[in-house]
Amino acid sequence: MSVYRDKRSPYYQFDFQHAGQRFHGSTKCTTRRDAERFEVAELEKAKALVKATRRAKTSLLIDDVADRLWNDSAQYDSEPKATETNLARLIGYFGQSKPLTDIDHKAAKDMVAWRRGHRVSRRGKRTKEEEQALPLVSNATVNRSATKVLQRLFTFAKDEGAAFDNEPKWDELLLPEPEERVRELKTEEAGALDSSMRDDYGPFFDFVRASGMRLKECVTLRWTEVDFCAKQIVRLGKGGRRVVFPITPAVREILFPLQGQHPEFCFTYLAVYGNRRMGLVRGRRYRITYNGAKSAWQTLRRRAKVDDFRFHDFRHDFGSKLLRDSGNLKLVQKALNHRDIKSTLRYAHVLDEDVAVAVERLAKSRNKSRNRIRKAS
Questions:
Q1: 146 secondary structure, DSSP code
Q2: How many domains, in total, are found in the chain?
Q3: Pairing of strands 226-227, 268-270
Q4: pLDDT, tens digit, for every residue of 109-154?
Q5: pLDDT, average across residues 182-195
Q6: CA distance 210 to 163
Q7: What number of other Cβ atoms are within 10 A of residue 206's Cβ?
Q8: Following DSSP, what letter does each residue of 177-212 receive, concatenated?
Q9: Final residue in a domain of this structure, among 57, 74, 105
Q10: Which among 68, 182, 254, 376 is least surrounded, fewest beta carbons within 10 Å?
């Protein structure tokens, strides 16, 4: 091991070999003593990298691990573009040649802090001042798009045989998230939405309310997944899990008349305006897209003057009403395709309300009995 001064740089350089591999670069130090300390630290990193690489029998550079993860499973995620973006963001932050063995708890914590400083992205051009006025990304976004993605890379490498002596403490890195609220649609709000609805979007929103499916699951519903004879919709849901949803008479009434409007997708809209660049012809039907549905929802909500109700709240409304009607948490779990019943427990307030009603009913019954006894005596 040795450090030396390069005339072309103000910093000392390090250059050593370990287990037949060469490690070299800048120490970013201007004194020999600091440079030697830096080189000792680099040697320890080199030992950890060689040890982990030998066990995994493959490269542990973050770019290489991400590439193998993508080819193995990530490309089949329910939202592969989001996964690709999140992996690219981590690689851009750490650098393509960063070994996972170099990412300890502090390095991961610094990455989390960096991601917390990002602002939400919105479509369209904005001035620098307008960009700075956008809110910061939420804790949930940081967890989902950064921390858990990095943890997934470590988990994948460990499955390949790698061992990490200084793996980040994931539980300490995850930021606190508020419990997801459960918002139900009030009767007058439902009426306002119906009154403000475009006719061509009516079947789509009727299905959303009748099925409790997620936005993406609704807009991507294909005719090949709809079996009127078996009275079932069979498809892959979040996380690639098989979802079976019953075609009730109400759902059949929504879907059956839509046949023939599009050869592949169930839900369409009528183009109000033509657009040469997008290939749209006024008056023709086109499939409803994810962004198109979000835009239509924003317009509908504004016209109906329904405040504090997100598109995802349709799912909460469905879950709450189904639990109130059935009183069966396991049934609601299956209907909403929740992997863990803990996710379904957020609707338990509905059962709490029923308990309160039952307790009140019991109290009134006891009072009546007491009154009868008093009168008799």
A1: I
A2: 3
A3: unpaired
A4: 999 999 999 998 766 677 778 777 888 999 989 999 999 999 999 9
A5: 92
A6: 48
A7: 17
A8: -PPPP--PPPHHHHHHHHHH--GGGHHHHHHHHHH-
A9: 57
A10: 376
